[in-house]
Amino acid sequence: PPPMPTPTPPPPMPPPTPGAGPGLSGRIAGRMDLVQVILIFGPDSIIREQARIAPEADGTWRAPLPPPGTYRVVPVGAGARPLRSEPHFQTVQVRDGGREDLDFRILGTD
Question: Taking a C-beta distance cutoff of 8 angstroms, is the pair 104, 85 a contact?
């Protein structure tokens, strides 16, 4: 019988995309120019800061997945100035996976 052809190895996997994998992410709309950072408070505290994320130029933002717990996500302006936004903040329960729908529409400053 003819010899069996040698199987071709699969192509190498592409390098990981930065920011890929579970995390917390969303998009800023409206007055994006007013947002300096997205603050993430928790776990289970509205005063303990877990992360501070600067949004990208297109309004998207992404944070690594924090430990399990309840978190509050808030867009903040220069000098920690509160912003008028819809919604004012988002509450997130982190258990097994992340969230990609933590969006805010910025209306202005308070």
Answer: yes
d(Cα 44, Cα 68) in Å, to the nearest integer?
Answer: 9
Q: Which amino acid is at 22?
A: P
Residue 94 neighbours by CB distance under 10 Å:
21
Q: What residues in the chain have per-residue pLDDT under 50?
A: 13-19
In the numeric block, the tokens 């969303």 are attached to 26
CB 32 within 8 A of CB 106: yes
End-to-end CA distance of the chain: 82
Q: Which tokens belong to 60?
A: 């998207």
pLDDT in tens, 34-64: 999 999 999 999 999 999 999 999 999 999 9
> What are φ and ψ of residue 94, in 5° steps?
-100, 120
Q: In Å, how far from its chain's centre is CA 75?
A: 12
Q: What is the pTM of this model?
A: 0.79
User: What is the pLDDT, as a whole number, of residue 20?
Assistant: 54
Instruction: Show the DSSP H helices in the chain as ranges.
Output: none
